């Protein structure tokens, strides 16, 4: 499957997260993104070094600036279960705007065409590192990394395109 690209409408699919009342929510991606400007950024794994120390903190630190530029939602996405994503999100007490969502079985990652095979590292099939800017379900920016790199998908890279 070809990776999601600029001009594509994001596929609909189901993702999972814990809301502010600690209740597990099962929602469609379209319900989160329809009529909104959304950043969906994906990471290969919760609690992994680059994801935890660089990628996620950048979006948390730049959240106010992103919102001031018209972004409605900032969503951190990973092939992990929702309990792991909830626990990982809680390690960032300063976070006020980034929603941590789970694609436990990797089905939505497959729909995006952004799978990354990390079986040789004991991680299974995960998501490539990426950052998408989505405007009313249409991809306007698609910054997708090669392998385990972190060169084009940061919050600063998205800010440059706003």
Automatic annotation (TrEMBL):
It comes from the Eukaryota. Pfam families: Redoxin (PF08534). One of its GO terms (cellular component) is cytoplasm. GO terms for molecular function: thioredoxin peroxidase activity. Its EC number is 1.11.1.25. Residues 4-162 form the Thioredoxin domain. It catalyses: [glutaredoxin]-dithiol + a hydroperoxide = [glutaredoxin]-disulfide + an alcohol + H2O. GO terms for biological process: cell redox homeostasis; cellular response to oxidative stress; hydrogen peroxide catabolic process. The keyword Oxidoreductase applies. It is an enzyme of class 1 (oxidoreductase). The active site is at residue 51. InterPro entries: PRX5-like, Redoxin, Thioredoxin-like_sf, Thioredoxin_domain. Keywords: Antioxidant, Oxidoreductase, Peroxidase, Redox-active center. Thiol-specific peroxidase that catalyzes the reduction of hydrogen peroxide and organic hydroperoxides to water and alcohols, respectively. Plays a role in cell protection against oxidative stress by detoxifying peroxides. Monomer. Belongs to the peroxiredoxin family. Prx5 subfamily. This is Glutaredoxin-dependent peroxiredoxin.
